[in-house]
Design goal:
single chain; 313 residues; mainly alpha; two-stranded antiparallel ribbon; 12 helices
């Protein structure tokens, strides 16, 4: 193996940092500057009419709580083998988010977090991050299915036959998971993965689930309060059911972090159009959710990316 001189290595690391941060900010700017569906004049007019300092601070507080709960989740999971402070967990989560913004389905987050640990711990960190993201996906599915059923009971967008087919496919997948539980790919099988998950202390799992539920409720209600701020007057449970449905369906689609608001926005437009909500309002709220919960943390995470120092030889 060819050894890389220290100066060359430092240059490559610095170049990678600049590439990640520069790329992140470019994609954020590109999405805001070249989205012709964002009618800023309507937004400014409504903002001047309804804005309040208390409302802005409240929405920012929800964004802080949302990301802080994610930080606590990561600290809790890493605590299964190594104690880290909230500050260290914040650094890892925010830097990894910045690194993942232009990777498919946030894959860069896995590598971003692993870089903060010794090479021997890489597999463990990848596994814990899978657990970390997995609970949010499971919660999105659970709440999303109930949301779809509630919404469908009123609008009937899915026929009874379709619901039966979906339920049948779900049952087949569950049966297949038991049948093929010992089938291994590169040494990994479903049975082995389940065993590794069960090996973690139950207290870790309980806290992870509790924090995951809390985080889901925070960002879904942030979405809800934004609709109220835009004068959308819909029943509480109907609005929450649509929000749950949108997050469930949008999360099922492969995408990049910087396209996140566009994907969620397009799915949301379809559902909210059935409720008579203007398309531009839905798009703006999806964009604001993206700004509050992705862009702001990425701005902070960019600092941690630039401060990052390699741990490996």
């Amino acid at each position: 193996m060819i050894a890389i001189p220290d100066k060359a290595k430092q240059f490559l690391v610095s170049a990678a940092k600049l590439l990640i941060v520069g790329g992140a900010f470019y994609f954020i700017y590109d999405q805001l500057a070249h989205n012709d569906k964002l009618e800023w004049d309507k937004f400014v007019a409504l903002f001047k009419k309804n804005w309040s300092l208390g409302g802005i601070l409240f929405l920012l507080l929800l964004s802080f709580i949302n990301r802080f709960l994610e930080i606590l989740k990561w600290q809790n999971l890493v605590g299964s083998f190594k104690k880290i402070s909230v500050g260290e967990a914040s650094k890892q989560v925010l830097a990894a988010l910045t690194a993942s913004i232009f990777t498919p389905n946030g894959i860069g987050e896995y590598a971003g977090k692993a870089l903060y640990f010794d090479k021997t711990e890489t597999k463990k960190i990848l596994f814990l991050n899978l657990i970390n993201n997995g609970i949010q996906m499971i919660l999105s599915v659970i709440f999303g299915v109930f949301g779809l059923l509630y919404f469908n009971a009123r609008f009937g967008i899915i026929t009874t036959r379709t619901v039966g087919i979906i339920f049948g496919v779900f049952c087949v997948l569950i049966a297949a998971s038991f049948f093929f539980k010992s089938f291994a790919i590169k040494g990994y099988s479903l049975e082995k993965i389940v065993h590794k998950i069960n090996a973690l202390p139950k207290a870790i799992h309980r806290k992870n689930i509790l924090l995951g539920i809390s985080r889901y409720l925070v960002f879904s209600h942030q979405y809800y309060f934004l609709f109220l701020a835009f004068d959308v007057d819909l029943p509480y449970w109907m609005l929450l059911s649509v929000i749950a449905s949108v997050y469930f369906l949008a999360s099922s689609l492969p995408t990049f972090q910087f396209f996140d608001f566009a994907v969620k926005g397009s799915v949301a437009v379809y559902f909210f159009s059935l409720l008579g909500v203007n398309e531009w309002i839905v798009i703006f709220i999806s964009t604001l959710m993206w700004l509050l919960n992705v862009v702001l943390p990425v701005v902070i995470g960019s600092y941690y990316v630039m401060q990052f120092k390699t741990r490996r030889a």
